[in-house]
Amino acid sequence: MLPQVFKNWVDSQYENPRGPVGKYIGEKMVRQHRIEVEWTIEQLHMHPNAIVLELGCGAGDALSTILQKREDVNVIGLDRSKTLIASAKKRNAASIQTGRARLMEGDFHQLAMIDASINHVFSIHTLYFWEDVTTVLSEIERVLKPNGTFVITYCDGKGDVQWNGIADRIQKEFIPEATKFGFQDVSVRRGPDSRDYRTVAVMGRKPHS
After folding, report:
1. Which domain holds residue 38?
2. How many domains is the chain partitioned into structurally?
3. Would the pTM count as exceeding 0.70?
4. How far apart are CA 92 and CA 64, in angstroms?
5. The domain spanning residue 110 has which CATH number?
6. Which of 9, 26, 74, 75 could form a disulfide with 59 if both were Cys (CB 3.0 to 4.6 A apart)?
7. Burial (0-12, 13-18, 19+ Cβ within 10 Å), 181
8. Tens-digit pLDDT profile for the chain (209 aa)?
């Protein structure tokens, strides 16, 4: 019984890192997800003066990477973990001071942002924890500006093993719901393998009107 209880506790820490262990997990994910972060940022195709929102910003490494690459872009990071938001604020302290970065604790299902205020939304390795895909997509559609884009990165397998659960969720739930909300150019793109995990992203664009 104890091993299963411990496994459940570890799984809960990855979903919502807390305390010293959560802080350690946040920094561990920074090291492990470098390939996915770099590739996902490339898929955003950010234009000058863009406002970029990351859902599940973790310890703030992807936001920091964007800010280093692009001096003409502002970022917002959202995470449900108070522990990781504290790490993200520390990692991006200088950009917060200058107003280029904003970090907040919150839930994907109810974004504390005004309508049509974001140019790009991205998320890395959070899709597994979305309780309601429809609600999150509704919020993404609401906050995106016309012609704004989203990139949601995840893994659908390791080595030769396909994770049919997440692949089916994309094809049977995510893509149909995204289409219902009017997103265009909805597609799945294969990325580079990372530690033998198969990186994938589903992406789309909000139409002009």
Report:
1. 2-205
2. 1
3. yes
4. 6
5. 3.40.50.150
6. 26
7. middle
8. 445 433 443 444 444 555 555 555 655 665 677 899 999 999 999 989 999 999 999 999 999 999 999 999 999 999 999 999 999 999 999 999 999 999 999 999 999 999 999 999 999 999 999 999 999 999 999 999 999 999 999 999 999 999 999 999 999 999 999 999 999 999 999 999 988 999 999 999 999 87
